[in-house]
Amino acid sequence: xxxxxxxxxxxxxxxxxxxxxxxxxxxxxxxxxxxxxxxxxxxxxxxxxxxxxxxxxxxxxxxxxxxxxxxxxxxxxxxxxxxxxxxxxxxxxxxxxxxxxxxxxxxxxxxxxxxxxxxxxxxxxxxxxxxxxxxxxxxxxxxxxxxxxxxxxxxxxxxxxxxxxxxxxxxxxxxxxxxxxxxxxxxxxxxxxxxxxxxxxxxxxxxxxxxxxxxxxxxxxxxxxxxxxxxxxxxxxxxxxxxxxxxxxxxxxxxxxxxxxxxxx
Length: 265
Prior knowledge:
The protein has 12 helices and 8 strands. The chain has helices at 70-74, 94-112, 114-117, 132-153, 156-161, 163-173, 178-185, 189-199, 204-221, 226-233, 238-249, 253-260, and strands spanning 2-7, 11-16, 22-25, 31-36, 39-43, 50-53, 60-65, 85-87. The strands form 2 sheets. It has a 6-stranded antiparallel beta sheet with strand order 1-2-7-4-5-8.
């Protein structure tokens, strides 16, 4: 089971149940701090799909920063972390790492409590029960934790100062050309790229690529024909979508259409 709840102006708090093996994680342009197997790790801003493992014994919990908030959220140059998963120790500022681990550990403790697990039937392996029957209780605890995280991490005020980040994300969604965006924000193209590398961890073209692939994926999952999804998402044609989609999502468009029950025709 996977459960998440938004933290306005910051990102998303999430938790996933124990799982065996690695999972394909599509690129979303975000960075996460994650508590997994009693270790705090950092997943840098993603511009391509990757394989990530969860814990086989305990839930994995994390805070995902919205695109553009990685630099402010993690207190370092986001470009250094792009498409990497690294231990937080020695990477993040010590105070931030301690606050992040404390907040995530509190959520993990709530998830592993008997109240969160609910009634048990038959023998158990000792791992929390994250079945659908417990999901509503679990989601409530996640929402409670989400209200406390911004105070714990002291990041809300920093995130609010990055107003230009929202402008960049909105411009990328509507495929605004980079020169026009830079002029509107009062930067040269080089200045805007430098600021994006520090805060997003990647440039404007990468942001557009990730958002375009996400849009196409959502359309395909809703049953749109592949050619229609390519056009509405902003690709030049279906071949263009196929080339970018595999790198960002980790599957071919036709594979996703088949898995969702759509013909993709």
